[in-house]
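Example 287, ligand zinc ion.
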Amino acid sequence: MRAIILTLTLAGLLAGDLYSADKKKPLPKPLRALLITGGCCHDYAKQKDILQQGLERRINIKIDHAHSPDKSTKPPLKIYGNPDYAKGYDLVIHDECSAGISDPKVIAGVLAPHKMGIPGVNLHCAMHSYRFGNFRVPVKVTDPNGKWFEYIGLQSSGHGPQRPIDIAFENNVPFITKGLKGWTTQREELYNNIQVLPGTKVVARGTQSNAKAVVAWASEYHGARVFSTSLGHNNVTVADKRYLDFIARGILWATKKESWPIAQPKNESFDLNSKPQPASQKKKIKR
Ligand SMILES: [Zn+2]
């Protein structure tokens, strides 16, 4: 019971933090977001909850899930075959890992809401989803296999080993990076850049040993704002306060809610059950 009261108090405090600037004004309706998770190679069962909790604590957003527990590269997400899947939502957050979904008709259905102007936020393996043909060389956005990359705003084909990444922000989209300071992740995947498409703005660059790549960017797709970051392989990154602050800002930018406040949750913790454990709990890796 005490835990419940504490949780409620915390929720109340956070809501208070969000709107204390002008209490007379009614709360704006929360953003409604659909978070898509599932597929290969990642702990989406945990990450979907970390993202929901972390983001709902920070900004005025209500997140629904479209999750598949399937671990293949072709997770049977319920959005497939339903181009209206985002009806009623202000935003779609793509965090699926569907590298093997290659039917152009299905992909067109995934893109349909964004083509109609619904903003998108894309995390990590979304960049490596919906691939077919020769995606390891620069594609044209007019090519059948270029449609997803056109939406993403950048083409990536793979990554190297899991090692820490040094993140450095750039000031090309000032709202997203306001107040943020670069940091070094724990073990992460640095996604390569086959090409950064015209019109895409670099938000952050990453350095991992000798490799460098754009790791966060902003673009426009048929008038919709799109924010993407290739960071977010391991739970420990996804649950990092700095990562969640960053994604929260990207969401407010994509949905043009830059005037909305962002709360700073105190003593935040998540049930990680993560693989791997934070580096501090592991034997030092020889590098
Ligand atoms: Zn990954």
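Summary: DSSP finds seven helices and ten strands in the chain.
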